Structure formats: C-alpha cells, structure tokens
Amino acid sequence: MSKILIIEDEAAIRRVLKRIIADENKTYEVEEVEDGVLGLNLVKANDYDLILCDIKMPKMDGVEVLEKIKELKPEIPVIMISGHGDLDTAVQTMRMGAYDYISKPPDLNRLLNTVRNALDQKKLLVENKILKRKVSKKYEMIGESEPIQHIKNMIDKVAPTDARVLITGPNGTGKELVAHRLHDMSLRSVFPMVEVNCAAIPSELIESELFGHVKGSFTGASKDRAGKFEAANGGTIFLDEIGDMSLSAQAKVLRALQENKISRVGSDKDISVNVRVLAATNKNLMKEIEEGRFREDLYHRLAVILIKVPSLNERRDDIPLLIQHFSTIIAKEQGIVPKKFSAEALKNLQDYNWTGNIRELRNVVERLLILGEKEISANDVLLFASK
User: Fold this and answer.
1) Can you give the CATH number for the domain in which 337 is found?
2) Tens of pLDDT along 54-102?
3) 103: which of 9, 73, 177, 269 is 20 to 30 A away, CA to CA?
4) Domain co-membership, 77 together with 199
5) β-strand partners of 276
6) pLDDT tens sequence across 175-228
C-alpha cells in the first residue's frame, strides 16, 4: 500500500487528482488537505510515499512547504502542482529537490506516469538503504590502529567527491573493503557498485566484460551485451587487480576516463557513461610502467588519490579486535559456540608472521574454533596455526 498526500487549496483540483490516482491503482491510499500548514502536520505524524503540493496556496505557499518537507523527511518525493504563471517557480522547486512538477489542468497520462516513477524511485531508495545496511556490515573495517585510522580519515574526506582512487597493498589486506566504504559513503551510493576482477578474466575477454559487445563481433557473441561500465552508470566501478589488465584494455579505460565515453567491442558507436572509477592492485605499478606492462598516462588518471592498505604485520594492535570479529561471524556461520582466546594465545597470534594477511588470519581463527579446546590456548595456536 502506497500512501499519497495531496496538498491543494482548490477543492475541485483535489477531487480530480484524488479520483485519477485512486482509480489508477487500488493499492494507493490517497489523503487530501487544503493548505500547507495542515499538510505539514500530517507529514510530521505520518509516513507518506509521495506528496503532491500546489505552489500558490494561502497561509503557506508550496515553496515553503517543500523546503520544510525536505528538512523533515528528505526521502519523500514531492511533485509540485503549478498554475500557468508558476512555471518559473516550479523550476526553482526542482532545484530545491522536488521530484517533478505538473501543470494545471493536469494531463492524465503525464500525471500517472510521474506518480508511478516517483513511487518507484522511493521504493528503490528504501531497498537501497536496507541493502546498504547489510553491505556495510559485510564490509565493515575492523581496527583502531594508527594505519587504519589514517585510512578511515582519508575515506571520510575522499568519499563524498568523485575523485578517482588507487588502492594498493598486498593480497589479503582488505583493499575491497576500502573500495566498498568509499562507495557506501559517497553520493553515488544509491546507484550500483560494480566489481571487476581483472586478474580472473582472460585477456581476450576483458574488453567485452568491461565495455560490452555487439552481436557477431567475435565467436560466441550471439547477441548484443552491455558491459560493466554501462552497468555501473551513475555509480561506481571497482577495477580490482588492475595491474593484470591488458594494454589494449588499458587504452580503452583511459579513453573512458578522459571522455566519459565507451564503445562496445565490434561497434563504432559511442555510449556516454557517468561512472566513478576505483582501482586496486597488489603490484608495484611504477615498476610495471618501467617494464612496459602498464600505461603511465592511465596510472596518473587513476591515482588522483592513493590509499595504501597496510599488511597485517604492520597493524598487529588490531589482531585481538579482528579475532573477536571473526570469531563471532564464524561461530554463527558454523553453528558452534564462540570460544574464548587466552591472553597467551592472543599474544602468540599477534607475534605470528602473517604472510597471508587478514585472509590468513580468518582461516586460522576458523581452524582454532573448530579444532581447539573450550578456551583457545597457546598450545592450540602452536598446533593449529603453524604453517
């Protein structure tokens, strides 16, 4: 059931709007009031999915009503109702955050299309918030050490911008967590973040994966297919292990960054894209450039902001927190009772040489929870954590 509020001082217009909208879909619950003050009182007391608001009204005009709605409940889409002389003001309300405006007398098809689209957007935003809460838990950054605090501070500054970020660090350190946090805290978070593991895709298919292809462009291309850049339009694309990307694909990525345009494999038609690019690598790209395997111009396009993720050996203070975090998750996944780690066990794990970084730590914690005693001892660590 979608709850819709109509704020309109002309009774005849209110009746027409209510009848048209209610007849369109029986799941629409439509309420109506004759002025902005009454409308705002209802907005404060109820959760609406959509509001239609007249611009010229007594007591409080629609511009002020819109401003207060956006302060109270900014997620509610508001469609402004404008008379013939209100068009300039209607455009102004769009800049203030109105979803759209409808002229009087309302055109039936335009009205219903705008209502449907606004409700779809509201539903998408709600679903996205729920998904973001789940994703945020999954990609939570655990740690209070100085290197991790530095990264979190960098993310806080960089995330709200569209700056490209190159994330470096050894395998298993959590570079993807940084990318997800950057996206989740950005203005693009209502749109998708699309991940591409450049190392996992054969070099002959990477261009098709990134930019799509047209039917017949190569053997097996049985139909047109959109690529990851198109799928990420409006949002973020995360190019993981970009150091493994072929030089020809690098050239196309460079063009996409320079011109905000791509072309599908086998096509000369340009497609405009609006995508923020995040990239990650465990390689020394400066060395790759020297040896001719990575384009220097692409490096400088990507590395507007550099974030280096430390190895686990460089942030040993975080190990007890990470162990507690993984223990809770793994116990729930495996259906087992969480176990306590003795002080000696924690110290031994802090002193361990973590060549596999956080990924290795998680595996060791899982092994200890399954094979260790009720309290994980230093001896358990010696038995089950050694390489």
Assistant:
1) 1.10.8.60
2) 999 988 999 999 999 988 888 899 999 988 777 788 888 888 889 999 8
3) 73
4) no
5) 236
6) 999 999 999 888 888 888 999 999 998 888 888 899 988 888 887 778 888 889
Residues in Cβ contact with 111 at an 8 Å cutoff, skipping those fewer than 6 apart: 17, 20, 21, 102
Q: In degrees, to the nearest 5, what angle opens at C-alpha 155 toward C-alphas 154 and 160?
A: 120
Q: Are residues 95 and 167 in the same domain?
A: no
* One domain, residues 243 and 283: yes
C-alpha atoms less than 13 angstroms from C-alpha of 157 in its C-beta half-sphere: 10
Beta strands in the chain (DSSP E): 2-7, 28-33, 50-54, 78-82, 100-103, 165-168, 193-197, 236-240, 261-262, 271-272, 276-281, 305-308, 340-341, 375-376
State the DSSP H helix or E strand holding residue 123, giving kind and residue range, or none if neither. helix 108-138
Do residues 265 and 327 both lie within one domain?
A: no
Residues 155 and 187 in one domain: yes
User: If you search the block for the tokens 């990575």, which residue do you land on?
Assistant: 294
In whole angstroms, how large is the CA radius of gyration of the chain?
A: 27
How does pLDDT run across 278-309, given as a tens digit for each residue? 999 999 999 999 999 999 999 999 999 999 99
Show the tokens assigned to 23: 């007849």
Could you tell me if 241 and 281 lie in one domain?
Answer: yes
Same domain flag for 240 and 262: yes
Retrieve residue 32's tokens.
Answer: 């109506």
Domain boundary, last residue among 83, 99, 131: 131
Cβ pair 59, 33 in contact under 8 A: no
Q: Which domain holds residue 353?
A: 313-384
- What is the total count of domains within the chain? 3
3-state secondary structure at position 374? coil
> pLDDT tens digit string along 109-162?
889 999 998 998 888 777 666 555 555 566 788 999 999 999 999 999 999 899
CATH of the domain at 252: 3.40.50.300
This model's pTM is above 0.85: no
